[in-house]
């Protein structure tokens, strides 16, 4: 469980409300929802600046949700745990915190269940692996290795995250390791990981 460094608020797009309200029902595919696909493309065009990888990420998204994102570390300031504690660096899901091709993030599991795969502009891919007492509603907490990294690289930002795969409430270290090996920097997630 993590605690954010910042107080934050978020809003959710009308597109994401429908996906959230469906509960266990999968959000409609982009092929079946041309309006949703257009909304994602319009948001991507504002952010991509010629980056074809971002365009491909938008093609994979189920929905786009606006959130306020902050950063956390495995340290005492975020988790109340120090090195040597048996749960130091271990997320709510049981996987180790990680900043990699696919990083661990904390979210409200009512909005983003454990295992939800996101694309966060300016941060990269994130998988919901953790929760936090201050991370309720439309907030995300992104993992960084140090407090200095949180402040220097991120701070507090409002971003439109793209939901690539809705989680089922579970996440394994094996899956996280495999997807990190499979994803090349700046490239879309292989389709097999979006369906698993």
Automatic annotation (TrEMBL):
Annotated ranges, domain 3D: 103-164
Organism in which the protein naturally occurs: Paenibacillus glycanilyticus
Signal peptide: 1-18
Keyword Signal (UniProt): yes
Superkingdom assignment: Bacteria
PANTHER family: CELL WALL-BINDING PROTEIN YOCH, RESUSCITATION-PROMOTING FACTOR RPFB
Pfam families to which the protein is assigned, alphabetical: 3D
UniProt entry keywords in alphabetical sequence: Signal
Protein name: 3D domain-containing protein
């Amino acid at each position: 469980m993590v605690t954010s460094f910042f107080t934050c608020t978020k809003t959710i797009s009308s597109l994401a409300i429908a996906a959230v309200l469906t509960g266990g029902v999968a959000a409609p595919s982009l092929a079946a929802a041309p309006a949703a696909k257009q909304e994602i493309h319009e948001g991507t065009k504002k952010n991509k600046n010629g980056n074809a990888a971002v365009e491909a990420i938008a093609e994979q998204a189920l929905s786009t949700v606006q959130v306020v994102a902050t950063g956390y570390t495995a340290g005492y300031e975020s988790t109340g745990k120090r090195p040597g504690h048996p749960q130091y660096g271990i997320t709510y899901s049981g996987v180790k915190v990680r900043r990699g091709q696919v990083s661990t993030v904390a979210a409200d599991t009512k909005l983003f269940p454990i295992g939800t795969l996101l694309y966060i502009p300016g941060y990269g891919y994130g998988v919901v692996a953790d929760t936090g007492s201050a991370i309720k509603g439309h907030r995300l907490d992104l993992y960084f290795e140090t407090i200095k990294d949180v402040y220097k690289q991120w701070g507090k930002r409002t971003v439109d995250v793209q939901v690539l795969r809705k989680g089922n409430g579970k996440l394994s270290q094996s899956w996280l390791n495999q997807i990190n090996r499979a994803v090349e920097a700046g490239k879309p997630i292989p389709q097999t990981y979006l369906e698993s």
